[in-house]
Design goal:
CATH architecture of the largest domain: Beta Barrel
Number of domains: 2
Oligomer: single chain
Distance between the termini: 76 Å
CATH class of the largest domain: Mainly Beta
Structural class: mainly beta
Shape: globular
Number of strands: 19
């Protein structure tokens, strides 16, 4: 009888306690899984972990900006084909996005990272009518904007001390890494080199390094790429980019020197290439920034110049530009101001004593540079097509000014004025005219 009672007690203890043990085991498993999940989510979402290079960490980020604009005055000749309001008629008003970014950065390990960026940006030329059926810029043939792949690359960190190797579609050394960041108002306007369509991104192999890795005051950026941004290469010519920079006075002063080179056509009787040199100097503090950027862009054997006696010469295009700006605090972290002036001459080799007209010879890869795809009547400056056009005889003066109200980090509302003046260099050429736009610009960024 005693043995039966003991066996009953054993069964009762075993089967009655089993649910409790099972519940405890399930709770421990749940806590373990939650810990793993939380850790993974922490790495995925935590910017500090990403910046520290923690393996498996990543971040999703984005930028968007646009405006409500009113075109108060329009240049009668639709000049300035590289400018975002060229060809838009007077009194046009609209809401418009000019950039939408969605990017993801990921640390594969402490040595390797990857990035991908999708972008939808404004259409060029702006004057293309919505029913044209012609794809241009980021507009499809159905006239809808679409995302394209702007960055897609892998970075091998410290391939040697202080230098990273980047393979894929990546920012070029031209302006995105230094001068555009210090200008800080890409939402208002491109840098002067960007307006003139120097590539901001390209597909190739690059090196980004520092001569003094511990302090980071002196560095360089090199890239060999297709020269066609996100478009497939149409020839074997490569675009070679090079940049060196230096910071002084606790990084308050930056000096940046840039050069590039690309062959465009290379055949007997026509060696057609381009070469750009650019310098940038800025004084940059949280409360005040002053910058100066200038370039010379020479395109060899690019223009057909008609002589007064009816003959013709093939001459170089020599473009020059300079940009001066200032921006600073009115109320720190809440209200700022910005002011910028650009002067641009698409060809300082205009010779009215020798030539009566000029026409571009064309680009093999479809990329616009000063002088490409231009044919017009030099007597009145009328382009052959009713679209925004680049006129290699017209100097430009650009001014923008405005305020930047920041209710919280990453959110900006910026009333501003956008003005671009054109003046012909031809003897008896068209009278000066201008584009004038009033805008309320908004900008939002997150994740970076």
């Amino acid at each position: 009888m005693t043995r039966i009672r003991r066996f009953d007690a054993y069964l009762h203890q075993t089967f009655c306690m089993k649910p409790l043990l099972l519940r405890r085991a399930m709770l421990l498993a749940s806590l373990f899984a939650t810990t793993l999940s939380t850790k993974a989510q922490y790495l995925w979402n935590n910017d500090t972990a990403y910046k520290a290079g923690a393996s498996g960490s990543g971040r999703l980020w984005g930028v968007l900006f646009g405006d409500y604009y009113v075109k108060a005055h329009s240049d009668s000749l639709n000049r300035g084909g590289n400018n975002q309001y060229s060809g838009i008629p007077k009194n046009r008003n609209a809401f418009a996005f000019r950039r939408i970014y969605l990017g993801y950065d990921y640390n594969i390990s402490s040595k390797f990272s990857a990035e991908i960026l999708l972008a939808a940006e404004d259409n060029f030329p702006a004057f293309n009518p919505p029913n044209s059926g012609t794809a241009s810029g980021d507009e499809l043939v159905n006239n809808k904007e679409t995302f394209y792949i702007k960055y897609a690359d892998i970075r091998w960190k410290n391939i040697w001390k202080g230098t990273d190797l980047i393979v894929g579609e990546q920012p070029t050394p031209s302006f995105p890494l230094i001068s555009e960041r210090i200008w800080s108002y890409r939402s208002i306007e491109r840098t002067i080199a960007d307006i003139r369509r120097t590539n901001s991104y390209d597909l190739g192999v690059g090196l980004q390094g520092k001569f003094d890795p511990l302090k980071g005051n002196f560095g360089y950026d090199l890239l060999v790429a297709n020269g066609t941004s996100d478009k497939p290469a149409s020839n074997s010519f490569k675009w070679f980019y090079g940049d060196v920079y230096a910071y002084f006075m606790d990084k308050k002063i930056v000096v940046d020197l840039y050069a590039d080179y690309q062959r465009l056509n290379w055949e007997p009787g026509w060696h057609h290439d381009r070469q750009m040199m650019k310098a940038y100097v800025a004084y940059n503090t949280p409360g005040l920034t002053v910058g100066v950027e200038g370039f010379i862009n020479t395109i060899r054997d690019d223009v057909k110049a008609t002589q007064h006696d009816g003959g013709a010469d093939t001459i170089n295009t020599a473009a020059q530009g300079i940009s001066l700006y200032i921006h600073g605090d009115i109320i720190p972290n809440k209200l700022r101001y910005f002011l910028r002036y650009d002067g641009y001459n698409p060809n300082h080799k205009i010779d009215n004593g020798k030539y009566s007209g000029y026409a571009g010879l064309g680009s093999p890869n479809g990329y616009e540079t000063p002088g490409y795809h231009i044919t017009y009547n030099p007597s009145n400056g009328t382009p052959t097509a009713a679209t925004a056009t680049t006129d290699i005889t017209a100097k430009e003066r650009f001014i923008t000014a405005g305020l930047d109200f920041t209710p919280m980090k990453g959110v900006h509302f910026m009333p501003n004025v956008w003005y671009n003046h054109y003046s012909s260099q031809l003897a008896g050429g068209a009278m000066g005219d201008y584009d004038l736009v009033y805008r309320m610009t908004f900008s939002i960024s997150f994740g970076r």
